Amino acid sequence: MAPQFVTGPWRTVARVLTEVFQPPVVVLVLLLISPAPEPGFPGTIWFGLLAAMFVCVLPLAYVLVMVKLGRITDHHVSDRRQRPALLLMTLGSVLVGLLVLHLLNGPVSVTVMIIALIGGIGVLAVVSAFWKMSGHASALAAAVVIVILMFGPAWLPLLLLVPAVGWSRLVLRAHTLAQVIAGSLFGGVVIAGLWWLLREWML
């Protein structure tokens, strides 16, 4: 049966996967562990929490308020026409977060993570004006690859989450297969690759 025609319990599973692994949640977890490459972790985790406030919490709060006011369709921002403005607002919040971390002499590894995410958000903002590449797939693929690069091959089983969440987006008719694949490749190759290059250069 084609994913878009899945019904019953499997459709519920798809909804759960989509909610649990939505981009703000995935990126929040990624930012929490971002200080790990430097000494002092997990004592430095609060810097990751601070970064998550600007990168995830504030933009998500903005989305929820806009949904409540009827200016955004839903918290997944399914209408691609509404995405560029939101992504630009997120970029602004991220830049403020970078400034705060700099003033507090936060770990460079947190800054590296944020810059890599800025690059990803910027590209998604441009692409979203023309095509709805999967943000869920991008965020999750980037996070999984970064975790594996950060902590080693023991975390390779996390790769199974990427097709699982991609499947959920197809079942819920949020994206086409091409949009899910493009999002996965963009996150796993471009965003994670940018993080790796920045880490090698800045740390």
Question: Could you list some keywords that capture this structure?
Answer:
mainly alpha, 8 helices, single chain, about 200 residues, globular
| Tally of individual helices | 8
What is the total domain count?
A: 1
Mean pLDDT: 90
Proportion of strand residues: under 5%
Radius of gyration: 17 Å
Question: What distance lies between the first and last C-alpha atoms, to the nearest angstrom?
Answer: 48 Å
- Characterize the largest beta sheet: strand count, sense, and whether it forms a barrel: none
Work out the number of β strands.
0
Choose one word for the global shape.
globular
- The ordered H/E elements are HHHHHHHH
Uncertain runs with pLDDT below 50, 5 residues or more? none
Structural class: mainly alpha
Q: How much helix is in the residues?
A: 55-70%
**What oligomeric assembly is this protein in?**
single chain
Short structural description:
It is built from eight helices and no strands.
Overview of the structural elements:
With 203 residues, the chain is mostly helical. The chain is built from eight helices and no strands. α2 packs antiparallel against α3, α3 packs antiparallel against α4 and α6 (135-151) runs antiparallel to α7 (161-171). The termini are far apart. The model has no long low-confidence stretch (mean pLDDT 90).
